[in-house]
Amino acid sequence: MIKAYSFSQNTLYLTIAYIFEKIFVFFYFIFLARYLGTVGFGIYSFAISFIAIFLVFVDLGFSTVLIREIAKNKEKAKEYLENVLTFKIITSLIISLFVVFFVNLLNYPISTRYFIYLLIPFIIFESLSSTFFAFFRGFQNLYYESISFIGGKSIYILLGFIFIFLKLPLIYFALPIVVGSLFSFLYSFFKAKKYLNFGLSLNKQIISFFFKIALPIVFGVIFSVIFSNINTVIISSLVGDHFAGVFSAAFRIPMALLFLPTAVGASIFPVFSYLVKENNKEKLENAFEKVLFYIILLSFPIVFGGLVLGEKIISFLYGPKFLEAIVSFKILIFITPFLFLDFIFSSLLTAFDKQKENAISRGIGLAINIFLSFILIPQLTHLGGAIAFAVGFVVFSLIQILMVSKLIPFQFKKIFKKLILIIISCLIMTFLLYFLREKIHFFFSLLIGIVAYFLSLYLLGGIKNENLKELKLMVTVTLRRGDKDKIE
């Protein structure tokens, strides 16, 4: 029997994994960017973005459907897993051929093509491991995924640093990505095999059933992945690898901060699905309101702190070669709340079978992003890419807010009151950061600012004792041993 964990347990497990992954991978990217320079880092970032765009066509939304359907009907878990696994083996091989075809069709330099060829096994390993993790998520178990995250990324980072120490050329840096993904695949495979004696199967009825549900989801997933990667590809194609490297350096900082909403979104999705199925509106509204509050609470100080310390952050992290990234960073950090909220809104909309509407809204935002990219990037290079991304994502988020408000009634007065207290606390933190930024190292001023923010919010009543108790409960419940399937 697969052990199920509570929402708080799953959130904490995956949050720890994402913190580990985002922080250590992020700092690895800092060293890698310094080692490769803007052009080399631009090629590296382009190759990863190029592969990521194709990778989404392997899954076609089946992993999300697998989570939802297993959460609803655990008796069919084996049958669903076998069919999705077989389907993704076939699609991963087909998409790998497409990668080779398109990278040659677009006539990229031979060094870039070889780098992408080496990343092709990553497509296969990543698609299969994500299937097993979706299987475990359906049982409300994110523990194994968290362990795999830490293990796979540790291998990836360790090999990367060894290659930097050995001063190896760019082409070698594809290998850590592949080896890390191989570990995740093997770990997830053997863990799934421990609980379920599965094989391979291709039932037309099940595949058709999954396609029917996944069709609206797949467009949302495709649009999401393209949204995150297309600007780097367009910048590289239109104005060169140097500006792609500059943009990627700025873009990776807010992306590195998404570990929290990613973990919360992954944990809350099965809960939303269950509560929607049970038509438990009261618990659903309480769960949504709780995660919405914490997401706003954590995202707003990032905006204020990033705007004040942007120059210090870029200079400290990347060095003088990447100072051009400062303005792009400030543009991208400004939309952090929208980036955070997307994970919660998308989870809720999918639970309500509104993935089609969510996909359309994401597609609108993506279309605006691409349209503005082709207009602005030739004139403003990496700045044009940052502006295009920001405008497109904000438009998409506003449409999301309208859709969510029709499903769950917003208590605008209550939310607005909390938002005002959060903004006041952010302003107190901002004034303190501005005063300290030239007097002490930015890292210490940042720590002081964080303490000032949460202390101000507590004194103003934005954070109450019950919130602190919830955080304490999240930790203590996670440390308990027990096999109860608990949805909070």
Attribute tags:
disordered C terminus; mainly alpha; 18 helices; 2 domains; 488 residues; single chain; globular
Number of strands: 0
- Class by helix and strand content? mainly alpha
Radius of gyration: 22 Å
The geometry reads as: globular
Distance between the termini: 21 Å
Task: Write structural notes for this entry.
The protein is mainly alpha-helical and 488 residues long. It has two domains: 7-410, no CATH class; 412-480, no CATH class. It is 84% helix and 0% strand. It is built from 18 helices and no strands. The protein has helices spanning 7-59, 62-72, 77-105, 110-118, 120-138, 143-165, 175-195, 204-239, 241-256, 259-277, 281-318, 325-333, 336-351, 355-380, 382-407, 412-436, 442-460, 465-479. Helix 2 (62-72) packs antiparallel against helix 3. The protein is globular, with a radius of gyration of 22 Å. The protein starts with 6 loop residues before the first helix and ends in a 9-residue tail after the last helix. Mean pLDDT is 84; it is low at 477-488.
Short description, anyone?
The chain is an all-alpha fold. Helices cover 84% and strands 0% of the residues. The chain folds into two domains: 7-410, no CATH class; 412-480, no CATH class.
How does the SSE layout of this entry go?
Blueprint (H helix, E strand, L loop, with lengths): L6 H53 L2 H11 L4 H29 L4 H9 L1 H19 L4 H23 L9 H21 L8 H36 L1 H16 L2 H19 L3 H38 L6 H9 L2 H16 L3 H26 L1 H26 L4 H25 L5 H19 L4 H15 L9
Helix pairs in contact: 1-3, 1-5, 1-6, 1-8, 1-9, 1-10, 1-18, 2-3, 2-5, 2-8, 2-10, 3-5, 5-7, 6-7, 8-9, 8-14, 8-15, 9-12, 9-15, 10-11, 10-13, 11-12, 11-13, 11-16, 11-17, 12-15, 13-15, 14-15, 16-17
